[in-house]
Design brief:
The protein is mostly beta strands. The protein has no helices and eleven strands. Strands 2, 4, 5, 6, 9, 10 and 11 form a seven-stranded mixed beta sheet that branches. The chain starts with a strand and ends with a strand.
Length: 124
Amino acid sequence: VQLVQSGAEWRNPGASVKVSCKASGYPFTDYFIDWVRQAPGQVFEWMGRINPLGGGTRYAQKFQDRVTFTADTSTDTAYVEISGLRSEDSAVYYCLRNPKLDFYAGTWHTSDFWGQGTQVTVSS
């Protein structure tokens, strides 16, 4: 199993960024993909999840206005797009494979594989 994320990104405040997560080694639609981020000196922050089978999404309240999850089952790739970037969005973003236990109540702590992380830096 591998989750391979796209490379580091730098953006000006107000811009958008899209990070990819290509899955391999397992049936892509059999697991959720969760997204978390970690800013310098901060704890992990769960952003939400997507069910690649059907594309259903769930967003943490803090991110529901500026974040969009998508999944392309033809390439087994998940994406997170963040718009209206702010300096406090500077963080390492991770995709996680999560067993399909409970889409709405399930925790990201049950995830079993992680991507390598993508550094996003927001600065003028």
